Structure prediction request, 423 residues.
Amino acid sequence: MSNTIVVGAQWGDEGKGKIVDYLTENTDVVVRAAGGNNAGHTVINNGTKYILHLIPSGILWEGKVCVIGNGVVMDPLGLIEEMNKLRAQGVKITPENLLISETAHLVMPYHRGLDQAREAKRGDKKIGTTGRGIGPAYADKVERGGLRTILLKQPEVFAAELRERIDLHNETLRAAGVAEVPAEETVVRMLEAARILAPHITNTAVYCHEAIRAGKNLLFEGAQGTYLDIDHGTYPFVTSSNTTSGGACTGSGVPPRMIDKVVAVAKAYTTRVGSGPFVTENENIGDMLHNMGREFGATTGRARRCGWLDAVLVRYAVMINGADELAITNLDGLDGLDTVQICTAYTLRGETLNHPPSTAADLEACEPVYETHQGWRQDLSGIKNFADLPPLAKAYLKRVEELTGARVSLLGVGPSRDQTLVA
Ligand code: IMP
Prediction:
């Protein structure tokens, strides 16, 4: 038995989907434990591109069981659309290979409306959310006014509770001057969604524990990244869940002592979508990557902000997540550069910092301290073995290990399954 958590060490989009897909070969059960369909995981397999938002990428493998855990917020219509798209691509999805926690909270249409209304009200202080209703759904959960997936198995209670919530939230939407949610039409659509999803809904904590007792391997697929974590991220420019390794436990019911390994995933450079501080942001890197057709969001299509690798952030992420190993992705994105920079520390008001400050305003004021490395100037995308990497690329990775304190165990040199190298 070996249970592994995979988390993002940056602001999401680190290529976790690909690393999870790679690790799934030796896994029986793949679990999502936080976030919702704000996430977008792209996996390319045999030339086909699959985009996953709520469903763990283990679904692309025959014989693996995927779990949407209690820590997830689940948009029933979004999930059904995702299931239909994957099925049209030939992916098999059944109540046997996709299980949804009874206690995961639902994202309802009024949450989307509230998300968009709040963002509009924030003006130039906007967070740049995905507009999927994630924040308001978690707010309802914590406020104890949320609706949980178990209701999809109790249509009459669900309809009554939903009508009540629509009524309540429409008051806020009306006051904000935003379109209200049509009550009866929404109830009809949700009852239809409930009929489709009900066979998948079960007590997934019990399922996970039984699987562990039976000697199966679990893989926890992180969504978003450490700096989007509601507690440890660049608050308020964060998402509304615990995206760090602790969230995998609370979001699934599998306790910390049953976790054997944590793998943190980081790009060889840094990206972020949405607003908020980004110390190593660099427009030239952004132009280069966008011209290569890279770094456009899987969920919103937005061009991501880009910059140099920030080892301060990755080091702190290794600490917060208890990461044993690092998976470095997208190393091939740096192939064409004469020199490559790594940020090793920050300066803030004359002081040197080795970890990020705790406020977004202070992080915004930090200046990067860079170290310059010679680029390898070689196309890495065809390399199949770690040993065949050019010495300058190996030196870059060695330095990342020294700066972050975690061993680089996996390396991505392209989007396909066979472009993942084992160190
Ligand atoms: P929300 O999760 O939609 O509320 O958005 C909050 C912040 O998290 C915004 O900056 C989003 O762009 C960011 N975010 C949410 N999900 C992802 C993701 O999967 N990748 C990258 N950024 C994300």
User: Anything to note?
Assistant: Residues 11-13, 38-40, 127-130, 132, 134-135, 223-224, 228, 237, 239-240, 273-274 surround inosinic acid (CB under 6 Å). Residues 264-422 form a domain with the Adenylosuccinate Synthetase; Chain A, domain 3 fold (CATH 3.90.170.10).
